[in-house]
Amino acid sequence: MRSAFIHVGMPKSGTTAIQTALDTHRGDLARQGLCNPDTMLLNHLALITRFHPRGSSHFYLGNKGVSPAEAEAQARMLWAQVCAAPRDVVVSSEYLAAAHENYGMMAEAFVEAGLTPVFVCYVRHPVDAAISAAQQSVKRGERSISETVEAPKWANPVPTLRAAKATGHRVILRDYADARDTGVVRDFLAAIGYDHAVPNLVETRTNNSLSMEGAALAELYGAYLRETGKEPFPKAMIRTIPGTAFTLPEETKARVRETARREVDFIARHFGIHLRETATPRPFAPHLTTKTLVELLKKIGV
């Protein structure tokens, strides 16, 4: 029976890089027998319409300017390609992680289409996930640095993994720390048995990490914008400021480790994966140094 590899993209685990590669190398993959349905945008928004509890009213679709009628049309287009694929199929969406209550229905739909569902997911050590989530929220201006330190947040993959296991179908789980060492796209294709499909694969970075100096600039940017209604400098510059890589203080990391103990134990017990925390010897130091400000002024052109 043909397989349907359902990539459930957990936050900050290389999802965009995987989706970009699948889209870029669609022809190479098809020649090797792996169909990546060609629908509007990356992230297979048609999967959201068909399998997410919010369906065509999901906020992601609205943010992309996709009407409910257009979303339904895209869902039909995706499913027609799934059913017509001569061999295996791969689909991917980060919003499937929050649709776990519908995994049974989703698995049954693929089986009815003549495919065996295989769930594929990348997970990170909770400390790494918390650092990444903090960096993202500070960069977007959603939370302050102090808020991320006092109340770190991260996505707990256990409900998603438990639901995938409950379908009775295969679940491929990978530690993102291991995948990042070799390249997450290469690791993904190897995990599903298609590492031979793209002979000239080049790994690309799709997200720029934030430095501690960049985090301080992000707070300055947000405060000035709220007070004056004007940008102090182009926001895109924040990601280009070099410096010490963003992290959280050791006491915050210790709280995350303690809080997430059951999460780590669940993954070890059910999947045999002992999540690896990335070593971060760098200090927590969100300072605006003279060097940082000079770098910013140079970029602005002052």
Please, could you describe this protein's structure?
With 302 residues, the chain is of the alpha/beta class. It is built from 15 helices and 5 strands. The chain has helices spanning 15-24, 26-31, 45-51, 59-63, 68-84, 103-112, 126-140, 145-150, 158-166, 176-182, 184-191, 212-228, 250-259, 261-271, 290-300; strands spanning 2-8, 34-35, 88-93, 115-123, 170-175. Strands 2-3-1-4-5 form a 5-stranded parallel beta sheet, with helices on both faces. Helix 7 (126-140) runs parallel beside helix 12 (212-228). It is globular, with a radius of gyration of 21 Å.
Main structural class: alpha/beta
Task: State the order of secondary-structure elements, H for helix, E for strand.
Answer: EHHEHHHEHEHHHEHHHHHH
Distance between the termini: 64 Å
Q: Determine Rg (CA atoms, Å).
A: 21 Å
Number of helices: 15
Low-confidence stretches: none
**Could you give the order of strands across the largest sheet?**
2-3-1-4-5
Largest sheet: 5 strands, parallel
Helicity, in percent?
40-55%
Provide the residue-averaged pLDDT. Answer: 90
Number of strands: 5
Global shape: globular
